[in-house]
Amino acid sequence: MSNLLQVMNEWLEGGVAMGGQLVVAVASNDILPADAYLPDTSAKAGTWFLSPEQHFVELVAFSAVYLAVVAWGCSRIGKKAVGPRLKPVHGAVRLACAGTGLLLFAILVRTVGWKMAKGSLAFLLQPCHIFSLVLVIVLMAPRSSLGVVLFNMHLFVQWAPWMALLMPDLRTYTPGSLELYSFFVQHIIIAGAPLVLMVTGIIPVLPRRGAWMAFGFGWWAMYQVWVLGFGSLLTGVNLNYMLAPPPVIESTSIRAIADHALYYRWFTQVATSIFAAVTGIALPALLAPRRRWRKRSRPHMKAA
């Protein structure tokens, strides 16, 4: 108990980064009072939830793995990944794509204003905003070479906005505010638009899905490790939980997870890799209805 009291006293006196030490104290058979909770790990207090040494080891390990994954995917895709130039879309389809892209861009611009007002511009690096920027490019130029490549890279992190909708972290949002509604509209668009584009065939899903999965997911994972990892350390902001675990750690039985809490980033890397693989397996199933429709329509087209 003395170890736990010392840690809590240091935290209350203004020491930072007591989160990881508190977990260690719990894991070493100290007993928490019934109403105890982890310190705030959403900002600077969580900077050293993981030790500097662990940050370094994980940076080297994750970087080595994902660089190898990206290199393998790139070598398998080849230089002529997109194939022949695609015909641009026109009419109602073009208007729908452009309108959705403009709405998403307007939400991004307004989000910049909200973050500036709160002094939290670092949160603009969050994956949802980068995904939104990518989809703005895709929707405004859906059949350009850049649009097709970005779309096929994005498909394998398509699970991320769905996870954000299922388990939203709304601690920094005011209930009933326009910013909160914009959060949900933004995530609904970035979760649903790629599915519509894929199933309708507006943008082609390119072959060699395994290579595209490695290439696309590998790049996003490197963004997480390098940009969000270093960004979190420089700003003290817990970008995409690179400094400390998500809030679920505070609403779960602490004793059940304390022994492994310091290794949460290893778990998330494995889990997100599985999600990417499952997405790659699910893509053919999503494409199957469109393929069946094409097969049924061909005899009628020939008869005509």
TrEMBL record:
It holds the Pfam family TMEM164. The chain crosses the membrane at residues 56-74, 95-114, 120-139, 146-164, 184-206, 218-243, 263-288. Keywords: Membrane, Transmembrane, Transmembrane helix. Coiled coil: none annotated. Signal peptide: none annotated. It comes from the Eukaryota. This is Transmembrane protein 164. It comes from Thecamonas trahens ATCC 50062.
